[in-house]
Amino acid sequence: MQRDLAERAREGDHDAFSAIAAASLGRLYAVACLILRDRDRAQDATQEALVQAWRDIRGLHDPDRLDAWLNRLLVRACYRQVRGERRRTLVELRVMMTAETRVIGPEISVVDRDRLERGFGRLDPEQRAVLVLRHHVGLPLPEVAETLDIPLGTAKSRLHRATAAIRAALEADDRDVSSARERTA
């Protein structure tokens, strides 16, 4: 069905593309929220990716790879959002993840969820992108590399570094909590 929609959209069928966009919108937005950690910028990146998809749909060579192609457009739009952010001064507020952007299950405690959220927030967008695509979207590492348009070895090293960075952030938080308890005791 998705292949048929993609082929029709490539031929200029607005309704087919609308169906593709409607089916992909929630997933793309959730991925953008996880990468950018800002709902407004995630909305902008999602919209930008879908506009780019409509403009370039004729260039989609393999309709069976539509999701991977949309993911690639989204990640690039997220990167552009981050580059644009570096040019202006922002005040960053920590925002808790919502149900539509939750990566972890409900069985995890609120404390653990908060710790993971803080650790995830310390990663750069490239590290968040590889973690989101691998663990949230569930793509195999070769597809993650293809989506990000990077070599497989680079994807592996980014995933390794991201995992190590989040682990280090969690351990640092644990040390901070332990030393704060010792001072108050």
Description:
With 185 residues, this protein is an all-alpha fold. The chain folds into two domains: 1-97, RNA polymerase sigma factor, region 2, helix turn helix motif (Rna Polymerase Sigma Factor, Chain: A, Orthogonal Bundle); 103-185, Winged helix-like DNA-binding domain superfamily/Winged helix DNA-binding domain (Arc Repressor Mutant, subunit A), CATH 1.10.10. Helices cover 74% and strands 0% of the residues. The protein is built from eight helices and no strands. It has helices at 2-10, 14-36, 39-56, 66-86, 110-121, 125-136, 141-148, 152-184. The longest helix is centred in the C-terminal third of the chain and has 33 residues, at 152-184. The radius of gyration is 19 Å and the shape is elongated. The N and C termini lie far apart (63 Å). Mean pLDDT is 82; it is low at 88-104.
Short account of what is shown:
This protein has 185 residues and is an all-alpha fold.
CATH class of the largest domain: Mainly Alpha
Tell me what portion of residues adopts beta-strand conformation: under 5%
- Along the chain, the helix and strand elements come as HHHHHHHH
**Which parts are unreliable, with pLDDT below 50 for 5 consecutive residues or more?**
88-104
Radius of gyration, in Å, reads 19 Å
Decide which structural class fits the backbone.
Answer: mainly alpha
